[in-house]
Amino acid sequence: MKVSIITASYNYEDYIKETIESVLAQTYPDWEMVIVDDGSEDNSVEIIKSYCKKDARIKLFQHENSANKGLAETIKLGLKMIQNEWVIFLESDDTIEPNYIKRKLEIISKYSDVDFIFNDVQLFGARDRAKEYEEYFTKVKKDLIDNYYPANLFSCFKRYNHISTFSAVMLKKGLFDGVDFNCPIKPALDYYLWIQIAKCATMFYLDEKLTNWRMHDSYIKKYKSNNYESAMFEYKKRKFLVMNPFQKILVPVFYLVALFDIVRKNIIKIHPKDKEIFIFG
After folding, report:
1. Which of 41, 159, 35, 130 has its CA nearest to residue 90?
2. Alpha-carbon gap, residue 226 to 241, rounded angstroms
3. What pTM was computed for the model?
4. What angle do the packed helices 16-24 and 44-54 form, to 10 degrees?
5. Tell me: the pLDDT tens digits for 94-107?
6. Which partner from 39, 67, 92, 221 sits 20 to 30 angstroms from 76, CA to CA?
C-alpha cells in the first residue's frame, strides 16, 4: 500500500533537509512526499527542488504566484495533490523515525477499522521550549494509555488536545470530507481539525516515540506576542472548555467572570445541531 506524506513548508531552510532525509530513510519505501511551499522567502524552495530532482517520489507544489496563504490553505492544497487513501503529516522542521510508516501500517493491517493513528513524540531542540509542553503532555498521556484501542476518543478531545503535533498523525484522507478549516485562532488549527474528525474517527494511539518534534521559535511561538494567544498557551496550555447548554450551569461563576473577556471575543464555533460551544480558555 502506498501512502502520501504532506509537508507544509515556510521559511525553514535550516531544517527542511533533515525533514526530507528522515523520509528518505524510511524502511518502508512505497510513499510519495508532497511538499507545499507557502511563499517562503528564504532558500527553502531551491532545497526542495534539489531533492525533487534526486527522487521522483518527492513533489513540490506552490500557491499561485508563490503566494503566502497560511497553513490551512497550504494543507488543503496538499490534500488535493496527494494520490493515496492514507496521508501522513510531517511539518518542515520535524523528523520521523525510520520505522514510522512501517509501524503504522502494521496497526492498519491488524485493525481494519482504524482510520486515524497518532503516536508519542520525542521533543528536541530548545530545552526551555520543551519544558512548556512536557508537563502538559505527560498528563494527557495518562488518558491515552488507559484506553483500549481502537477507540472513539471524542470524549477525550472535548477536554484536551491529545495530539502534540501534526507530525504525529496518519489518517485516511476521507476524514477531511466536510471538515471546516476556518479556525479563527491560527495556531490551534490542528486541534480545530482533530476535534471535528474525532466525532466519527476510529483512532489508535501508538505509545512509541516515532516523531521528533523540534522546539524552537516557531510559527506558534511568534503568535504568543499577542495577548490573547499568550493567555491561551500559558494559562490553559491549549485546553478547550467545551460546554453544552446543560453543563454551562455547572461552571463556577468566578471562572466565567475571569474568562469573560476571552469568551466574549473568542468563541470559535457554535454548533446549533450538536448544541455545543467550543471556547478557548
Report:
1. 35
2. 20
3. 0.80
4. 20
5. 999 999 999 999 99
6. 221
